[in-house]
Specification:
This protein is of the alpha+beta class and 656 residues long. It has helices at 3-42, 75-86, 135-140, 150-162, 218-222, 254-265, 326-350, 382-386, 448-454, 457-477, 481-485, 488-500, 521-529, 549-562, 580-585, 590-601, 610-617, 622-625, 636-655, and strands at 65-71, 91-94, 167-170, 175-181, 188-196, 202-212, 227-229, 243-244, 247-250, 273-274, 278-281, 296-306, 310-318, 358-362, 372-374, 394-398, 403-404, 414-415, 422-425, 434-435, 437-439. It has 19 helices and 21 strands. Strands 1, 2, 3, 4, 5, 6, 20 and 21 form an 8-stranded mixed sheet that branches. Strand 4 (175-181) and strand 5 form a beta hairpin. Helix 2 packs parallel to helix 10 and helix 16 (590-601) crosses helix 17. The chain is globular. It starts with a helix and ends with a helix.
C-alpha cells in the first residue's frame, strides 16, 4: 500500500467520522425539538391569563355597490372577506345574528377546540404539520393552540379584518334577502342583497358576487339553490346529528388541570389524552344518567382551556332539534340549561379532580352540526375520502375522521373512515341553478357522510380564502363562477393566487390502503356509501370476518329507507325461525342471505329457491357470487357484494 493511498483512506475515514458526527448531532437536535414540542403541547399545566376583548364596530357608512358581499362572520366568512380584500376587491362583510364580536361558532358558540387536518406523513421536526395553511395559519399562530381563549380568538379575527382597508363591516342586520335577476333560459343571478339594518331601515346593496358564509346556506336557499337536509341523501330525511350547548366551568386551577391530564394519560382508553390547552376522554360519561334521557345524552368530554381558571366543555348532545327553526333552537337552550347543572354535579361527585369546579355559564349560541347540504357543480362523496382522492380544481385539503355524531340517544355515532388526505374541489362551492353566488362552510356541496369530515373549520376557511380570490379571477375573465369551475386555465390561475397567499395546493397521491386492494372492495364501497358500515379510526372494515343472519336483516331493512318503492316486505321475517342467540352468533349462509333479500323485497319464495329467483331477476350477479369462497359462511365482504347488486336492482325498481 502506498503512502498516498494510506493518507487517502485516512482522510476518507476522517470524513466519514465527521459526517456521522454531524448526522448524530442533527438527530439529537431533532429529537430535542420533538421532545420540546411534546413537553410544550402535552406536558405542562401553566397559568392561563385573561385577555381583554376588543370592541368591534360596524363601518360608519355602507355603500350602494361592492365588488363582493360576504354574508356571515363565522371563520369561513372572515377568511373570504380578507382574501377578497387582499385581491383588491371592495368588500362588504355583513352578519345577521345580533353579534358584537367576530368568529361565530368559535367565539359565540364557544367551540374553542379545533378539529385539525394534519399531513399524512409527519416529520420529526414537524410531527403535527397542519394541512391548511394561508389565512387559517395566519390566524392560528395568534391563538394559544388547538384550544384557545375565545377572547384571543375573537381579537385575532378582528385584527385580520380591521387591517384590511377594502372591508366595510355591518353587524346586527335584522334580515337579509338576495336580490335576484331571472332572465328566461338563464340561471338565476344573485346581484346583491337587501339588508334590514339594526335601526330598521332597509338598504339595497349591489355586488358583482355574493359569498354565502352563513352556517346554514341561508342566502343559497333563499336564491333557489337545491339542497338536501340532514341525512336525507342516505334515506334518513328527518335525521341529523345532535346539537350541543357548550358550557363553562370555573375553579380549574393549574393544579386541577394537571389532575385532569394525569387522569386521561393513565386511562386505558387509547383515545384519551391531554396537552397544555386541550383534553379529551372520560368515555364513561356515555353512561351518565340524564334528567331528560329522551332528548339528552353525554359523550366523552372535549375540554378546552379558557381565560383564567376556566374551561369550556363540548359534550352535551341534544336531539330532535331543527337548527333552522328559532323555536326549536330555543327549546335546545331550555333543555341544555336544565341538564347542565346536573352534569356538573355528576362530575363533582364522581371525579376528584372536578370536586371544586363550578358552573360558570353556557354559550350564547348553539353548536348546530348539520342542516342544509347544497347541491353544487360537484358533490363531495364518501368515496372521495375512502380513496384519498385528489381533485384537479383543489382549493383545500381535509384529513379529519368522518365523524357522524349521534342521531338519537340510542345511537352510538360512528366514525365511517379515517382518510389520509383528500382535496376539496372548487366545484363544491359553486351552487347549481344560481349564478353570482358561492357557498362555503358546512353547507357546501357535500353528501352528508363526507360532511362529517369536511365540515371542520380549517377546511371551511380554506374554502373562504379560495372564494374571495375566485371573485377576482372570475371578474377579470368575465366569467360566471360556473364557467370558472369548468376552466382548467383559470382554476390554475386561482390556485397560483392562493399559493402566493400562503396556501399549499400541490397535487398528491396516497398509496391505496389495504381495503382498496381487497377483491370485494366494490362491495365495501357500496356499503359505506349507504352508511351500512364504518371502519373507525383505523379503517377496520373486517371484510374477511364471518357475518350473521341478524346483520343481513339489518342491512336490508336499512336499504329499504333508500329505495322504499322497491321493498314491499320485511326482511325480519327471514330470521323468525332462528333463535335470538343464533341470529347473532350463527354463520350466515348464502341461502339465508338470499332469503333475507327476497323477504325484504316482498317476494314469496322458499328459502331454497331464493337465490335462483334473485339471479333470474338480476338482483344478484354471477360476478359477485364468484367472489364467495364458502357459501355456508359468508363474510362481511361477501354480503357487501350481494348488497351492491341489490342496491343496483332496487334503484332500477325505484325509478319505474
Amino acid at each position: 500500500m502506498t503512502k498516498n493511498n494510506t493518507n487517502s483512506k485516512r482522510a476518507a475515514s476522517k470524513g466519514w467520522i465527521i459526517w456521522m458526527s454531524l448526522l448524530l448531532a442533527l438527530t439529537v437536535i431533532a429529537a430535542g425539538i420533538a421532545l420540546y414540542w411534546q413537553y410544550k403541547h402535552f406536558g405542562g399545566a401553566k397559568e392561563t391569563t385573561a385577555h381583554t376583548l376588543s370592541e368591534v364596530k360596524s363601518s360608519a357608512s355602507i355603500e350602494d355597490q361592492y365588488d363582493v358581499i360576504v354574508v356571515g362572520t363565522d371563520p369561513e366568512g372572515l377568511a373570504a372577506a380578507v382574501s377578497a380584500s387582499r385581491n383588491g376587491l371592495k368588500t362588504l362583510l355583513v352578519d345577521g345574528r345580533d353579534r358584537e364580536i367576530l368568529g361565530g361558532l368559535m367565539t359565540l358558540g364557544w367551540l374553542n377546540s379545533i378539529d385539525m387536518n394534519y399531513v399524512p406523513k409527519p416529520t420529526v421536526l414537524n410531527p403535527h404539520e397542519v394541512l391548511n395553511k394561508g389565512i387559517f395559519s395566519e390566524w392560528y399562530k395568534n391563538i394559544e393552540g388547538d384550544s384557545f381563549s375565545i377572547n384571543t380568538a375573537a381579537n385575532a379575527f378582528h385584527d385580520l379584518v380591521r387591517k384590511e382597508k377594502n372591508i366595510d363591516l355591518l353587524l346586527k342586520a335584522k334580515s337579509m334577502e338576495p336580490i335576484l335577476s331571472n332572465k328566461q333560459g338563464q340561471p338565476t343571478l344573485v346581484e346583491g342583497i337587501t339588508v334590514t339594518k339594526e335601526d330598521g331601515t332597509k338598504k339595497e346593496v349591489r355586488a358583482h358576487a355574493v359569498i354565502d358564509a352563513t352556517q346554514d346556506g341561508d342566502i343559497a336557499a333563499a336564491s333557489g339553490v337545491p339542497f338536501t337536509y340532514g341525512l336525507e341523501d342516505i334515506g334518513n330525511k328527518n335525521a341529523k346529528m345532535a346539537v350541543t350547548l357548550v358550557f363553562k366551568l370555573k375553579n380549574v386551577t393549574p393544579e386541577v388541570w394537571a389532575q385532569i391530564s394525569k387522569h386521561l394519560k393513565n386511562d386505558d382508553d387509547p383515545m384519551s389524552d391531554a396537552n397544555e390547552v386541550s383534553a379529551w376522554g372520560y368515555k364513561e360519561l356515555y353512561n351518565y344518567p340524564a334528567l331528560n334521557p329522551e332528548r339528552v345524552k353525554m359523550r366523552g368530554l372535549n375540554i378546552g382551556r379558557q381565560d383564567g381558571d376556566m374551561i369550556l366543555i363540548n359534550a352535551l348532545q341534544i336531539f330532535n332539534i331543527d337548527g333552522l327553526d328559532a323555536k326549536s333552537r330555543a327549546e335546545a337552550f331550555e333543555i341544555g340549561k336544565k341538564e347542565i347543572p346536573n352534569v356538573v354535579k355528576h362530575l363533582q361527585q364522581n371525579y376528584p379532580e372536578f370536586a371544586k369546579v363550578e358552573l360558570a355559564g353556557t354559550a350564547p349560541e348553539l353548536y348546530v352540526r348539520e342542516t342544509r347540504h347544497i347541491q353544487g357543480e360537484y358533490r363531495l362523496k364518501i368515496t372521495d375520502l375512502l380513496e384519498n382522492r385528489d381533485q384537479w380544481d383543489r382549493i383545500g385539503f381535509g384529513s379529519y375522521p368522518v365523524d357522524i355524531q349521534r342521531l338519537t340517544p340510542a345511537d352510538t355515532g360512528t366514525v365511517v373512515t379515517q382518510p389520509a388526505q383528500y382535496a376539496i374541489p372548487f366545484r363544491s362551492i359553486v351552487p347549481k341553478k344560481v349564478d353570482g353566488l358561492l357557498v362555503i362552510g358546512r353547507a357546501a356541496s357535500y353528501d352528508s357522510l363526507p360532511h362529517g369530515s369536511a365540515r371542520v373549520i380549517p377546511v371551511g376557511m380554506a374554502e373562504g380564502e379560495a372564494a374571495g380570490a375566485a371573485v377576482k379571477i372570475a371578474k377579470e375573465a368575465k366569467m360566471s363562477f360556473r364557467e370558472l369551475s369548468a376552466s382548467k386555465e383559470n382554476i390554475a390561475k386561482l390556485q397560483e393566487v392562493l399559493k402566493k397567499q400562503g396556501m399549499e395546493l400541490e397535487p398528491f397521491t396516497i398509496e391505496p390502503p389495504a381495503y382498496m386492494t381487497h377483491k370485494q372492495y366494490e362491495g365495501l364501497k357500496a356499503a359505506v356509501t349507504m352508511s351500512l358500515v364504518g371502519g373507525g379510526y383505523k379503517n377496520e372494515f373486517e371484510l374477511d370476518k364471518v357475518s350473521n343472519p341478524q346483520r343481513m336483516v339489518n342491512y336490508v331493512n336499512r336499504m329499504k329507507k333508500l329505495s322504499p318503492a322497491a321493498y314491499s316486505g320485511d326482511a325480519s321475517g327471514a330470521v323468525k325461525d332462528i333463535s335470538e342467540d343464533g341470529r347473532k352468533k350463527d354463520a350466515l349462509s348464502l341461502d339465508q342471505a338470499a332469503f333475507t333479500i327476497t323477504q325484504g323485497l316482498g317476494i314469496k319464495v322458499a328459502k331454497e329457491a331464493a337465490l335462483a329467483e334473485l339471479t333470474k331477476l338480476g338482483a344478484v350477479e354471477d360476478a359477485s357470487l364468484n367472489t364467495i369462497k364458502d357459501k355456508e359462511k359468508l363474510t362481511n365482504g361477501d354480503t357487501f357484494m350481494l348488497i351492491k347488486d341489490l342496491q343496483k336492482y332496487a334503484e332500477s325498481k325505484q325509478a319505474k
